[in-house]
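Same chain as my last thread, 400 residues:
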Amino acid sequence: MPKISRRTSDLGTENAFVVLAEVNELIRQGRDVISFCIGQPDFHTPLNIQDAAVKAIREGRHGYTPSAGIPELRAAAAKDMGGLRGLSIDPEHVVVGAGAKPFIAYTILCTTDYGVGDEVIYPNPGFPIYESQILACGAVPVPLYLREARDFAFDPADLEARITPKTKLLILNSPQNPTGGILTKKDLEEIAAVLRRHPDIWIYADEIYSRLLYQGEFASIASLPGMYERTIISDGASKTWAMTGWRIGYASSPVLAPQFVRWVTNTDSCASHISQWAAVEALNGSQEEPRKMRASFLARRDLIVGLLNRVPGVTCKLPGGAFYAWPNVTEACRMTGAKDSEELRKRLLNEAGVAVLADIHFGARVPDEGQHIRFSYAASNKAIEDGVARMADFIRKNTR
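reply #2:
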């Protein structure tokens, strides 16, 4: 029997989908499960966007497009990204992809070479595809620890300590998955000061949650002097407009845009023509529905954090953005005899019917930071109230 490659054997995954499969199997068996494991808005895509897609179909806009995307979407994305960040972005420097996720791999492929020891610094805990793609592309992953005491930002001195002559790329994510933490303008200025001493390092700014910020003003490192030229801004339609399944993301780089186009041609050919026209409407049309969704997420954030902080053995920081809570469950593990957050997660699922993710699903556990789990609060108020109540009951009943 022919063998599969080691690269494929070692390829990581996004554990939210793995746990979701477990949840769906339990539900199929008749179990009652409240799920907080998947990170996607629970709202319908706004009607004006749906209507734009139907119109595109009726008008025959369902063939190939240029690999870079239709000009109308590139222009709309350039205007939207630039307006939020105080930048003047040329539409020619914007490339459309089948979601924002492919640009993680495209960026690593454009900035590192396979098997020569090139290093990529990435946040930990962080979106698991960062580490997975670094390894798959033949580079060396270098975790940069996010600390609870810093509201899940990192110490710029820790960044400087990880930079070597082999460092080619730094990945930043704000607002952040899985912690909901943010990098403030002050944080970014300190990070930029470090990077100015290392002008050969690229920056990948994953800002897919840029419109879901709940405190202060959104800040991007690309907005700081001298940074845009070396920064890849990654954004998209999925989170802001509840369009995860439409698969539309976009990235901006004045240097790498032509290289991204070649990668799109080599992989997806182009993003869905229909979805691109829907995204044009998302960006250019009424923003009333996105504002309502953001307000709902903010209310849910306050609800779930307040409830979690009343659960025995649990403490939870107030996340500044996205739709994730990252409670510390170190004491809850001790109380229930769970050896770690992953055992607690499994027991919550199988004994309490509550589906969450564990910290190890987002990278190796950060030293001296205790145990954490992730809730996606893209769920109804009732689901939040009932799910946290089940968790509290489980801990009380199982306290030794």
